[in-house]
């Protein structure tokens, strides 16, 4: 299996001069982050050996290499979800490829519905921790024989969202004047693709979940397993309906719409975070 990741990494290394230290996974409607990379090399997922395909609207299906504020990055414009029918190994495949490419920091973004009472659509939540519901019942990308080359059989998950990066992001939000809609909280992954019933929403709320979505946790588990530093952001695109009296209902178009509305704020925050984070960067000259 290690060979499969290595083959993809080798193919990418032979097709771009960029040697990224930071990888970004863009959530629903947040793919524009990739457009701001300079000196781009972009590949359709369908052209990359071993890569799965994106099937969800709002996930373009391109891997973009380039520079952001002088730092070399690789950006997934579109991610893979369990509900698309991919195995968890496939949904997290790019994370191990990034590791083999020399990436040290993974930034994950997603669209999520809020359960916390003080949260509102348009808020940006720094992910402090997650509840991996599929993982709790054995649907875990690390299931099966452990690959010791990536990490240990029983990895700790008690500190998978880097505290230093969380603090830095909050400082940056204050400086950028967007602290008013910044939050920090717990993200829970459910399998999807249906949105939650009211009883499910109430259950999640009681369990202390602040935001719910259908991705991210498996990627972060695989990243933490292989020693990547992780930073995560949820864009709150809707309130999860918790009352039988509430006539509102959520839909994917609405999710994408809030993504468009806040895309610039998310982009500015992530750009500044990358610019200010410490990495052993090695920009390759004359990459075009
Ligand atoms: O890829 P993310 O987690 O941002 O996508 C969310 C969850 C579903 O895929 C979709 C629902 O609108 O957005
Ligand atoms: O309300 C939601 N539930 C699950 N996933 C989501 N992704 C965006 N909004 C939601």
List the helices and strands and how they pair.
Blueprint: H1 2-15, E1 22-25, E2 38-44, E3 62-68, E4 71-77, H2 88-91, H3 93-101, E5 105-114, E6 124-132, H4 133-136, H5 163-175, E7 182-189, H6 198-206, E8 211-213, H7 217-225, E9 229-239, H8 252-276
Parallel strand pairs: 1-4, 1-5, 5-9, 6-7, 7-8
Antiparallel strand pairs: 2-3, 3-4, 5-8, 6-9
Helix pairs in contact: 1-3, 5-8
This protein binds the ligand O=P(O)(O)O[C@@H]1C[C@H](O)[C@@H](CO)O1 and hypoxanthine.
Describe the structure.
It contains 8 helices and 9 strands. With 288 residues, it is α/β, with parallel strands linked by helices. The protein has a 5-stranded mixed barrel. Helix 1 crosses helix 3 and helix 5 packs across helix 8. The radius of gyration is 18 Å and the shape is globular. Bound molecules: ligand LQZ7MJT6 and hypoxanthine (HPA).
How many DSSP-defined strands? 9
Termini separation: 32 Å
* Number of alpha- plus pi-helical segments: 8
Mean pLDDT: 94
Bound molecules: ligand LQZ7MJT6, hypoxanthine
What is the fourth-level CATH superfamily? Nucleoside phosphorylase domain
Q: Can you tell me the residue ranges where pLDDT is under 50 for at least 5 consecutive residues?
A: 284-288
**CATH topology category name:** Rossmann fold
Provide the β-strand percentage band.
Answer: 15-25%
- The CATH level-2 architecture is identified as 3-Layer(aba) Sandwich
Estimated helix fraction: 25-40%
From the helix content, strand content and strand pairing, which structural class follows? alpha/beta
Order of helices and strands: HEEEEHHEEHHEHEHEH
Overall structural domain count = 1
Main sheet makeup: 5 strands, mixed, barrel
In CATH, what is the class? Answer: Alpha Beta
Shape: globular
| Largest sheet: spatial strand order | 5-8-7-6-9
Rg for CA atoms: 18 Å
Oligomer, anyone? single chain
């Amino acid at each position: 299996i290690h060979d499969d990741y290595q083959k993809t990494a080798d193919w990418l290394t032979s097709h771009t001069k960029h040697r990224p230290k930071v990888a970004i996974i863009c959530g629903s409607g947040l793919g524009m982050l990739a457009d701001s990379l300079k000196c781009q090399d972009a590949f359709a997922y369908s052209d990359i050996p071993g890569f799965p395909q994106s099937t969800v609207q709002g996930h373009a299906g391109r891997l973009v290499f380039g520079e952001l504020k002088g730092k070399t990055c690789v950006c997934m414009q579109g991610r893979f979800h369990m509900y698309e029918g991919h195995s968890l190994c496939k949904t997290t495949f790019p994370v191990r490829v990034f590791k083999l490419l020399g990436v040290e920091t993974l930034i994950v973004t997603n669209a999520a519905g809020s359960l916390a009472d003080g949260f509102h659509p348009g808020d940006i939540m720094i992910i402090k921790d997650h509840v991996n519901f599929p993982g709790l019942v054995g649907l875990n990308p690390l299931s099966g024989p452990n690959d010791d080359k990536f990490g240990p059989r029983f990895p700790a998950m008690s500190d998978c969202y880097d505290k230093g990066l969380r603090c830095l992001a909050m400082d940056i939000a204050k400086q950028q004047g967007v602290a008013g809609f910044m939050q920090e909280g717990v993200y829970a992954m459910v399998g999807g693709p249906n949105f939650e019933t009211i009883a499910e929403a109430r259950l999640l709320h009681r369990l202390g979940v602040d935001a719910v979505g259908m991705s991210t946790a498996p990627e972060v588990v695989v990243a933490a397993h292989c020693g990547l530093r992780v930073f995560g952001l949820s864009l709150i695109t809707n309130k999860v309906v918790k009352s039988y009296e509430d006539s509102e209902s959520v839909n994917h178009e609405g999710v994408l719409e809030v993504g468009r509305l806040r895309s610039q704020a998310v982009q500015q925050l992530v750009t500044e975070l990358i610019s200010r984070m410490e990495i052993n960067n090695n920009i390759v000259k004359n990459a075009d």
